[in-house]
Structures are given as structure tokens and as C-alpha cells.
Design goal:
Helix 3 packs antiparallel against helix 4, helix 6 crosses helix 7 and helix 8 packs across helix 10. The chain is an alpha+beta fold and 316 residues long. The radius of gyration is 22 Å and the shape is globular. It has 2 domains: 185 residues, Sandwich (Jelly Rolls), CATH 2.60.120.10; 102 residues, Arc Repressor Mutant, subunit A (Orthogonal Bundle). The strands form 2 sheets. A 6-stranded mixed sheet has the order 8-1-9-3-6-10. Strands 2-7-4-5 form a 4-stranded antiparallel sheet. The chain contains 11 helices and 10 strands.
Length: 316
């Protein structure tokens, strides 16, 4: 099983090509806070400084990739504190939506930046994107898969060819996954408490794989520990230390996300969905689903079909 692929799929993460910055001399452009989307910036040439509230300025070099979380206003510029007419929020917002080039600065182009935008279904309980730090920075590392993809993206934009749109759409998705891979490998301590922390953990990673492979099974901490050949005490201690929740709580959350997806995507009756996600009785399933999603399964399905936007859970 591949839990990361599972979670990326069920959380509805979707990436799009945003603004492209071509700048030189003194320049700056601001990215307003977008509550529902994360911004990813790739420096394909030159250098830039990223500034965000309550954070030290971050210098970016060619090949660097940085992901800025939803709702975090930030600025890219030639130096920290560059301000004035060089920083046009309206132009940036328009170019981001249209995928256009923003020409900035007082000199020849020395810096090129590609910006991508990612959104997800924030009502989904099991999340990767929304649980990350405000800023995730991966420095350029020659010979890595991320480095190769960044170069491919830059080349495709510089010299469009047949089916460039299809290639770019695929690369946008690949960049995010490879950012996750590179960040977890390079900064394991920074991942603590996030969903991604489990990926490289020798205990939690295999445990999550087992839960995703058979979510309907009547798992206990003991049976899960036995399945991955560790002691119950080790699993009970390690699981919350790595991703901040118990195996039982994680399994319940994952089951509720799977159930919600089936309610949205199929006509399966609740009597079929309940055992498929590990519940022997419909009342028990209904109680668990209502606690998780704030409405009964039947109402959830009815509202979705009526086009009512699901509400994000308080505190999510």
C-alpha cells in the first residue's frame, strides 16, 4: 500500500500553475493571503528573498523550492524590505490566476521564479497539506529527483512544445510529492507531529500501511503491533510521538474519510458502507460519522447532492 497516495487522493489536492516572475535590479512582489490554498515557489534562475510575518527573511537560490501555507501573506523580492511601486499586489493576484509572467525591477532579468498553487478539500479529516509548518524550504540539491523536475518545469516553460499543457499539469503534481520526499529526508525533526513524519519511521510507517491496506479489520494496538513485528508497548509509545495521535484514533479518522468519499461518489447504501469501513452495526457507524463530520451519513449525502458546501470542522 501507498498511504501518501491514498491521502493525496482523498484530500483532493489539486495544483495549478500560477504567476511567473521575471525580475532584475530592485524589485518585489507580494502574494496576498489565500485562505484555501498553499503557494509553492521555484527559483529557476538567480536568487530572491522571501519575507513573511513573524519569520526571519529567507534567502532563496536557483533550484530552491519553498512551500508557503494557506493564509500566509508573503513577499518575494531582491532584498528584505524592498517596498513601494515595485510591489504590486493587484498585478500579482491577476497574474497568479491567469498563469502570466510578471516583469519586475529596474534592470535586466536575472531572476526567474515559477509559482504554483495548491488547494485541498479542507473538510477531509486526514490531511498532509494543512498540517505542515507555515514555510517548508528545500534547498537545491544537484542530482535529486526534485532538482530534475524543477529543471524540466523550467525548460517546458521556456520552450513550449506539443502537449506542453499536459506536461506542465503532470509536473505540478510531481513537484509537490517530491518536495514532501526531499523535506522528510532532509529535515526529519521538522516533520515531527505532521502526517509526513510517519513516512520514514520504521515503526509507524509500516503500521499506517497495514491500516490503509485493511481499514475494515478489527484492529487493536496489539494486533497491529503483531502485524509489524514490534511490541504493543513500542507501538503505543511510538505512534503518538511521531504523528500526534494513537493508532485507534488515526484508524477512526481514516475510516470516516473513506466513508465520506463513498457517500459522495457512490449510491451504496449505508448498510454496505458501514461494514466496509469496519463497523458491524449501522447505528455505531452513524454515531461515529456524526461525531467526525457534524451530520449523519444520510444528511451528508443529501447535502452533497444538493450542492451544499461541506463545512470545515471547528478547529481543523
Amino acid at each position: 500500500m501507498d498511504p501518501l497516495s491514498d491521502v493525496l487522493s482523498i484530500s483532493g489536492i489539486c495544483g495549478t500553475l500560477g504567476a511567473r516572475v521575471e525580475a532584475g535590479g530592485n524589485w518585489a512582489t507580494a502574494f496576498a493571503d489565500v485562505p484555501d490554498g498553499a503557494a509553492l515557489h521555484i527559483v529557476t534562475a538567480g536568487s530572491a528573498w522571501l519575507t513573511a510575518p513573524e519569520r526571519d527573511p529567507l534567502e532563496l537560490s536557483a533550484g530552491d523550492v519553498v512551500l508557503v501555507g494557506a493564509g500566509i501573506p508573503h513577499t518575494l523580492g531582491d532584498a528584505p524590505g524592498t517596498r513601494g511601486s515595485r510591489c504590486d499586489r493587484t498585478a500579482t493576484a491577476r497574474a497568479t490566476l491567469a498563469g502570466e509572467v510578471i516583469a519586475l525591477g529596474s534592470g535586466p532579468v536575472t531572476t526567474r521564479i515559477v509559482s504554483l498553487a495548491y488547494v485541498c478539500d479542507r473538510t477531509v479529516l486526514t490531511q498532509v497539506l494543512t498540517g505542515l509548518p507555515d514555510v517548508v524550504h528545500v534547498a537545491a540539491t544537484a542530482g535529486t529527483c526534485l532538482d530534475d523536475t524543477v529543471r524540466m518545469l523550467g525548460n517546458e516553460l521556456a520552450t513550449p512544445q506539443v502537449a506542453t499543457t499536459a506536461v506542465l499539469n503532470s509536473l505540478v503534481d510531481i513537484v509537490l510529492v517530491q518536495l514532501f520526499r526531499a523535506w522528510t529526508a532532509d529535515r526529519p525533526a521538522a516533520c515531527a507531529g505532521t502526517w509526513l513524519a510517519m513516512a520514514g519511521d520504521p515503526v509507524v510507517g509500516p503500521a499506517v500501511e497495514e491500516l490503509h491496506a485493511d481499514p475494515a479489520r478489527g484492529w487493536t494496538t496489539s494486533s497491529l503491533a503483531a502485524a509489524i513485528s514490534v511490541s504493543r508497548a513500542t507501538l503505543a509509545r511510538r505512534f503518538p510521538a511521531v504523528i500526534g495521535t494513537t493508532p485507534a484514533a488515526y484508524l477512526t479518522t481514516w475510516r470516516m474519510d473513506l466513508a465520506a468519499a463513498r457517500l459522495r461518489q457512490t449510491l451504496d447504501p449505508i448498510e454496505v458502507i458501514a461494514p466496509a469501513v469496519g463497523y458491524l452495526s449501522v447505528p455505531a457507524f452513524t454515531r461515529a460519522f456524526t461525531r467526525a463530520h457534524g451530520r449523519t451519513p444520510g444528511r451528508y449525502r443529501t447535502e452533497f447532492r444538493a450542492g451544499v458546501q461541506p463545512r470545515e470542522r471547528a478547529g481543523a
